[in-house]
């Protein structure tokens, strides 16, 4: 069983930065592909970034060059978000998958709210 807990959300002005953290409770953390997803008001959930077991990463186009996903050996996932825009406002979720495909994520955290004001 995988348990995930996000933290680090908050309210910032446009151009600001936040770092999201996801603590994973699982023995085989290093074997999971990890990802960050978000769901904005009135929008469908979208994949933001993924990081595979070998450290390879993917990003959705709208965050490339502004967001950085990373993971460490302490079962923690991060999302560094810089140059935030109002359209980044959303609930952000941490997720885990055995295969690094956006449709394969089956373990989810409760989410952390990010609000960016103009």
Please tell me about this protein's structure.
The protein has 118 residues and is mostly beta strands. The protein is built from no helices and 11 strands. It has strands at residues 3-7, 10-13, 18-25, 33-39, 46-51, 57-59, 67-71, 76-81, 90-97, 107-108, 112-117. The strands form 2 sheets. Strands 2, 4, 5, 6, 9, 10 and 11 form a 7-stranded mixed sheet that branches. Strands 1-3-8-7 form a 4-stranded antiparallel sheet, with no helix packed on it. It is globular. The model has no long low-confidence stretch (mean pLDDT 95).
The rough form would be described as globular
SSE pattern, N- to C-terminal: EEEEEEEEEEE
Determine the structural class based on helices, strands and strand pairing.
Answer: mainly beta
Unreliable runs: none
User: What does the main sheet amount to?
Assistant: 7 strands, mixed
Query: What is the number of helices?
Result: 0
Kindly, what is the distance between the CA atoms of the first and last residues, rounded to a whole number of angstroms? 40 Å
Average pLDDT, to the nearest integer? 95
Work out the helicity level: under 10%
Portion in beta strands: over 45%
Total strands: 11
Rg (CA only): 13 Å
What topology emerges from the helices and strands here?
Layout: E1 3-7, E2 10-13, E3 18-25, E4 33-39, E5 46-51, E6 57-59, E7 67-71, E8 76-81, E9 90-97, E10 107-108, E11 112-117
Parallel strand pairs: 2-11
Antiparallel strand pairs: 1-3, 3-8, 4-5, 4-9, 5-6, 7-8, 9-10, 9-11
